[in-house]
Fold these 2 entries.
Entry 1:
Amino acid sequence: LALWQRSRRFRRLIYGSPALVVALGVLAIVGIQWLRPSSAIGNYQSEIKDAIEREDYEAAKIYLRKLASFEGMEDSARFRLAMIEQAAGNEEDAARIVAGLAPEDETGYADAHFWRAQKMAKDKTRWTKEELDTFIHHLEAVLEAAPEHAQSHRMLGDVYLARKDLERAAQHFEAIVDSQPEVRLALARVYRQSDNEPSAQFELDQAVG
């Protein structure tokens, strides 16, 4: 199959937000909340936050490894550890940890899947079919955990539109058009290519109105 090359607009769109999310406790990308089953966990989280604020990444990593020992906290702690490794300039260590959390052949931790999708979008300019399938896998894994995650819907809509898979492109754009009206032009293009002129004209009217 032919290689698929992204447009500059697509590249700006899917990598518009920072890849590194470290400040104030390293917030989860898809908004999955941390559990707080004990005061010990809360204490560790406070220590991690304080260490990050003073850029003491080694101390933050120590507390994150302790936090990972609690049931239900392992994946979120490991992901935050990866983000701290990235902040400290240890890109290979960060990528290794995230790869373990977000495998290419099954569903893992949603934040890690989104991180890998963003990294692919940033690093690649031409794609093989296999690479694009992997990219789609990571975004679909995010949507399994967070079905309303707008960035994943937007990215998948653009990918499927580029692949001429108009039905799937429409599904992803339609999922977010009310909250992100800027996708109306893309949705109009999908409808027009699907010979649905009334819907295409409606979306165009809404976009300019």
Entry 2:
Amino acid sequence: NLILKNFRLEPSEKNNRRDKKYISIPDFELREISLAELITSQRLQAQELVLKNSRTINYYIPGSKGIRPSQPLNKIIDEINKKIDLDKVRIENGYMLSQSVTEKTERIEVTGINSSISTNELLDAPSYEVMGFSIGRLTFDKASISTGNIKAIIEKGELYGKEKLILNQKVTLTNLKNNSSVKIDYLRLKNYHFDDELSEVEMDSLT
């Protein structure tokens, strides 16, 4: 096994861009590594990657193209697959923040993320929607989603990738303009569909 403590990826001090990404993983563990595969083919092969208490922070500029043009999804996946052969990724108590640097009301924050992901299924997926099938079960303690005058608080959420099912124990929707709110004790989303740009999102049922 390979164990790393306080693994971090962050921009250098010379990076003056406003849109930045930060990743910190206090406990990073690769289990059952194949040294033979690493030596002979220089390709990392392991049974499982466990990420404990990871924090992913993304500051973005809406609609920005970035410095380099975006690559087709299948090309990115193919490059990753050339270097890594990993059966499963397990996330324990993860945290994610995505915040617009130009529109302070555009923000997504998720705490207490726990999941087990089939990496081979993820890498073979032709689209982001099919990537979701690789998630056996993902749970989170709380998600806060803000856009414009609307804020949604979702508590105790569950996502089942292959079933295309999302369960939420409690949802609160608030209109910040007039301070009105709607509370839902149990929400079930079934058979959701979305494109790679997330510009079209559909679902068969909402109960």
